Q: What sequence folds into this?
């Protein structure tokens, strides 16, 4: 059953999907090789963690091993919530209930920018 064109299309799609999977697996191996220090002692980092084995996934993404949390070097500035998880500066900004008053030229500039 089915026309030859449909069969060829199915074969082409299957071949493309296999190639995509192979490329993805190669990419995963490359990333794992470059970050192997993060998964030391883990037998198979791409194997599904046991707590997800019976989970009914809806999309194509699947969990893998969760690595140790990376640290940000001291020379890189961190936001105020990096240490305490409390965004103090953001909360202070939200507390500002001042309304900006714009000139006619500023309003016209915003109208033009919004077009």
A:
């Amino acid at each position: 059953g089915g026309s030859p064109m449909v069969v060829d299309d199915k074969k082409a799609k299957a071949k493309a999907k296999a190639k995509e999977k192979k490329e993805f697996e190669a990419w995963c191996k490359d990333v794992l090789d470059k970050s192997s220090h993060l998964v030391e002692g883990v037998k198979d980092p791409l194997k599904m963690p046991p707590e997800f084995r019976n989970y009914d996934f809806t999309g194509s993404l699947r969990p893998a091993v969760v690595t140790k949390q990376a640290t940000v070097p001291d020379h890189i500035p961190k936001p105020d919530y990096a240490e305490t998880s409390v965004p103090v500066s953001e909360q202070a900004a939200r507390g500002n209930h001042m309304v900006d008053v714009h000139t006619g030229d500023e309003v016209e500039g915003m109208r033009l920018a919004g077009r």
About this structure: Residues 4-34 form the longest helix (31 residues).
